Amino acid sequence: TLRRLREIIAEDPAVVEGLEVTGRNAGRFRFVEAEITVRVRELEQAETVTRRGERRIRGEVPYVDRVLIHAEPVRRTHCKYAVPLADTSGAVSEHYGDAPYFALVTVRLSDGTVEEQQIVSNPYLAEEKAKGIRVAEWLLGYKVDVVLSRADVQGRGPVYVLGNAGVELRRTEAATLTEALEEQQRDSEEERQ
Known about the structure:
Largest sheet: 5 strands, mixed
CATH topology of the largest domain: Nucleotidyltransferase, domain 5
Shape: elongated
Mean pLDDT: 86
Low-confidence stretches: none
Strand order of the largest sheet: 6-5-4-7-8
CATH architecture of the largest domain: 2-Layer Sandwich
Order of helices and strands: HEEHEEEEHEHEH
Oligomer: single chain
CATH superfamily of the largest domain: Dinitrogenase iron-molybdenum cofactor biosynthesis domain
């Protein structure tokens, strides 16, 4: 049962790690406590994540009487970027939902070293409706931290899907993936100073 509880909690896109789950029985009732690390920075968002987890546990695990989930903000050592691409050679797409590919790049924050990079095909390219929202949900499955986009999607569905999971959406004017990552590295260095 503890393994299933961990799985339920880990399915939330805002949960990053630290799934310490304990439980005890009192007769037919179960009491569950969990400590998690979340991607969100605002207390209100963290509370939403914990309530969502508590509801799911109560709904899927029988006889759970009390669920307490404690959330800590993530201390990031790496940042995982998602960048919409026009082609596999690294040209940044002018579009978000209509991008045929996405680059998923993990960067070590201490020195900007790219530790992992892959290019994946957009599975929702042929969709006619809610394409951007579906792409956002799909990207959450990769546990991205930041989505870079040339397209302005402010006020649209993807912003809310990503934002509710603690994923930041940033505009970029970069023409290539390399330029976009260099731009982010410069911005990070400026923030640290």
